[in-house]
């Protein structure tokens, strides 16, 4: 085979043995590109490709030539955000979802209020079914939110699963006058901050405002016939109700104090009732107990005798000039100043809702 090589091919094999081997047609189907250098002035072979200063990595502009079109949101998410501004709000009424969440036939969610009012889905218009969205319910129940009465003064932040329970005893909800038909006839209703003004204007004889160490003296004139009385005690930021009931049938007198607030807050307060006879300095009756919440029916408190209970025969021994004289003290458990008949130990300090 060597005898058949032309003079040009022989020179190529002798001067560039590696290049010759790589450029053979039976080893490569495409010509190779590489730098060619030769100190001689000889021209490169005709089947060589000479590349000078090759750029191995050519930079490319990765920026698109035009802006991408904005991605269109789903209809349900658009409706949900536009309705309430929050994906945890019901798209039908824009209110927070709450604990129970129902779905329409298309799977869109709505709150229990919309379901109870037979509203149509706010997204597709279909009827709401009994199908529940348990996955969303579980997520919503773990999120926290403000009390619906936050604008009226409630500062509590609770889990959504606890808000419904809190609303039933929140002191900042709409209040009715405690002088209901069982005591007197008054149909007033309003906010807690308006209750004191209502008593001062329409039931002033039942309105007691505590300022400093001044504790008003109270009197019970009827200690024989059945009667009921209720007083509003305003003490700092807090409002208390003092209930007194004379039962001619049971031959007993019941007294108790309730905080207008939650059960948890009521546990932070105690009350003392001091009965005394001004003509007998040593004759005195003192009763101390925890306040209960006004959420609890006062009749249940009296029936279970979780209050001061005095026999009519005994309380009549305190009668002086036809009436029984007494004082009611309310104190926070966080205060150390002792209670006595001359001073009111409770200072105006916030304990909580």
TrEMBL record:
E.C. number(s) listed in UniProt: 2.3.2.27
Residues covered by the SIAH-type domain: 142-204
Reaction(s) this enzyme catalyzes, per UniProt: S-ubiquitinyl-[E2 ubiquitin-conjugating enzyme]-L-cysteine + [acceptor protein]-L-lysine = [E2 ubiquitin-conjugating enzyme]-L-cysteine + N(6)-ubiquitinyl-[acceptor protein]-L-lysine
GO cellular component: cytoplasm
Pathway: Protein modification; protein ubiquitination
GO terms (BP aspect): proteasome-mediated ubiquitin-dependent protein catabolic process; protein ubiquitination
Record keywords, A-Z: Metal-binding, Ubl conjugation pathway, Zinc, Zinc-finger
Top-level lineage group: Eukaryota
Positions with biased composition (Low complexity): 16-33, 63-83
Pfam families from the UniProt entry: Sina_TRAF, Sina_ZnF
GO molecular function, one term: ubiquitin conjugating enzyme binding
PROSITE patterns referenced in this protein's UniProt entry, alphabetically: ZF_SIAH
Region (Disordered) location: 1-86
Function: E3 ubiquitin-protein ligase that mediates ubiquitination and subsequent proteasomal degradation of target proteins. E3 ubiquitin ligases accept ubiquitin from an E2 ubiquitin-conjugating enzyme in the form of a thioester and then directly transfers the ubiquitin to targeted substrates.
PANTHER family given in the database record: E3 UBIQUITIN-PROTEIN LIGASE SIAH2, E3 UBIQUITIN-PROTEIN LIGASE SINA-RELATED
Domain notes: The RING-type zinc finger domain is essential for ubiquitin ligase activity.
Protein family (similarity comment): Belongs to the SINA (Seven in absentia) family.
Protein name: E3 ubiquitin-protein ligase
Gene: LOC113494342
